[in-house]
């Protein structure tokens, strides 16, 4: 299932566009002499679309969005607990005290964002201004052109190509033929060329008309827009150079398809005649250029007509490239789907999220919650991996998408009474102050990693770590005392942190003190009704 949106941020457009440019560079280096010449202008067109249109197309092959992108749009977490009795099923809901990442964190401070927008805008205006000045100079030159009206050779050639509506001009300020115009394209020929050489004239007009038929000036105009908007990206400037080169090569190939080997050699001679030493290919117009004439002549002399197999392979290559480029990157999205669901019939709690941007229809969250509760109620294994696999399978069936569209997290979810019953057998009990003690010894640091429960204080006789197997059952308890390397190392860390804390308190104001980072540990607790809550 595909999901289309127009919500791609600019920085991701730049990132994915740059990756695509580098990819085309690599493909061009490896397959330039093996693929038809029309392939690379098509690939460059895909890159331009990525750079200019903020689309996001999510598919099963899309690149996963980094977690920090997802957190930008993450919704507040809601915890649901289903408690089952013999007759009825009760579901209670409680909102936790966690908040959206976007509410409390900002990737770029607003003042810097404003400066970046201003610099980007000024750069765009400056680049556009320079290109407009260049166009104005070309326009002044072309305004002095003379329409060629009574040249029978030109009229005959245009008639043979069914392009009688195209106007041909001569100009004494240009050095090589060029095509100018989008809606009303015109061909301009240098006054100094020999109009009596019919074959030369035929080759030139055929080449320029092929540019018109292929809409190359339109593609160059889009390229100019990309250069203006992405003026700061050197890869875009390199792309403009290679795009112009590939357009000329594709145009030559289109002309050569209509010729035999003798005509191709003659065409190469005409190309060499009209190429001007030192004249560079222009982004503004399609024109002959001496800078790449050697490469173009080599391509002409080694040209081979496309076979059906090569054409089919090229089309397949373009289709696969289009799919990969279009769906490879996706915009940040909210990964929120289900609540954190727990059931008194299971030792495990489950939360499902989205792995890619996708539309799941109405009440998707409620439907996902129901799927999870059904799995927890039906499960008799208490195996977290089996539960996770079954939730993925049922979610995919419920929403009609692939399993990879979801992320499912299964965590141990026990009530206080269940935890205390397990801990007592290991010699861990709660003291009067609410902190755990181990066989009468004060615990400095206690951690049950799978349960997500931690207690810590500065003083204590032992550090206790509860180890569980994959089914969530306590397999062992690690107890560290003074003299153990880990215990002593932790003691030194506490001393350093305590010393640093005193320095920070002395040197900072009360406001800065409030912003000082401290360790926080989250503990699953239950209230008097037996419902789960989330304490900090």
UniProtKB/TrEMBL annotation:
InterPro entries: Beta-lactam_resp_regulator, Peptidase_M56. CDD domains: M56_BlaR1_MecR1_like (cd07341). Pfam families: Peptidase_M56. This is Uncharacterized protein. The lineage of its organism: Bacteria, Bacillati, Bacillota, Clostridia, Lachnospirales.
């Amino acid at each position: 299932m595909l999901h289309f949106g127009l919500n791609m941020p600019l920085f991701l457009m730049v990132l994915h566009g740059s990756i695509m440019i580098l990819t085309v560079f690599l493909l061009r280096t490896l397959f330039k002499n093996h693929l038809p010449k029309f392939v690379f202008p098509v690939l460059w067109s895909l890159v331009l679309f990525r750079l200019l249109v903020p689309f996001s197309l999510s598919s099963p092959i899309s690149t996963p969005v980094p977690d920090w992108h997802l957190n930008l749009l993450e919704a507040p977490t809601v915890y649901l607990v289903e408690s089952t009795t013999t007759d009825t099923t009760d579901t209670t809901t409680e909102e936790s005290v966690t908040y959206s990442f976007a509410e409390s964190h900002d990737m770029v401070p607003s003042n810097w964002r404003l400066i970046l927008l201003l610099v980007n805008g000024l750069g765009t205006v400056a680049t556009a201004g320079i290109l407009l000045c260049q166009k104005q100079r070309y326009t002044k030159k072309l305004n002095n052109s003379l329409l060629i009206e009574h040249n029978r050779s030109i009229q005959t050639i245009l008639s043979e190509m069914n392009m009688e509506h195209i106007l041909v001009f001569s100009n004494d300020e240009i050095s090589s033929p060029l095509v100018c115009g989008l809606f009303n394209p015109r061909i301009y020929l240098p006054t100094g060329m020999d109009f009596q050489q019919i074959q030369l004239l035929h080759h030139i007009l055929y080449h320029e008309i092929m540019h018109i038929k292929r809409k190359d000036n339109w593609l160059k105009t889009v390229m100019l827009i990309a250069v203006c908007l992405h003026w700061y990206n050197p890869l875009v400037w390199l792309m403009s150079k290679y795009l112009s080169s590939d357009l000329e090569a594709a145009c030559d190939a289109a002309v050569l398809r209509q010729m035999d080997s003798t005509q191709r050699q003659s065409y190469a001679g005409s190309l060499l005649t009209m190429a001007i030493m030192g004249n560079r290919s222009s982004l503004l117009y399609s024109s002959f250029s001496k800078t790449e004439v050697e490469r173009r002549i080599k391509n002409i002399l080694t040209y081979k007509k496309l076979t059906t197999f090569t054409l089919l392979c090229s089309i397949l290559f373009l289709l696969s490239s289009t799919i990969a480029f279009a769906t490879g990157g996706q915009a940040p999205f909210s990964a929120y789907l289900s609540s954190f669901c727990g059931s008194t019939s299971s030792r495990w709690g489950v939360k499902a999220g989205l792995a890619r941007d996708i539309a799941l229809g109405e009440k998707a969250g409620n439907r996902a919650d129901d799927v999870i509760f059904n799995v927890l109620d039906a499960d008799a294994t208490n195996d977290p991996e089996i539960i996770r696999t079954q939730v993925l399978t049922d979610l995919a069936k419920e929403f009609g998408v692939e399993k990879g569209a979801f992320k499912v997290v299964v965590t141990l979810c026990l009530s206080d009474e269940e935890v205390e019953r397990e801990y007592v057998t290991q010699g861990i009990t709660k003291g009067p102050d609410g902190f755990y003690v181990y066989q009468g010894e004060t615990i400095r640091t206690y951690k049950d990693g799978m349960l997500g429960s931690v207690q810590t204080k500065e003083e204590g006789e032992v550090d206790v770590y509860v180890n569980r197997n994959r089914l969530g059952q306590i397999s062992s308890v690690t107890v560290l005392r003074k003299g153990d390397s880990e215990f002593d190392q932790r003691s030194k860390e506490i001393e350093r942190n305590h010393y640093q804390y005193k320095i920070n308190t002395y040197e900072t104001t009360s406001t800065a003190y409030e912003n000082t980072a401290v360790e926080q540990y989250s503990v699953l607790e239950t209230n008097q009704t037996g419902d789960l809550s989330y304490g900090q």
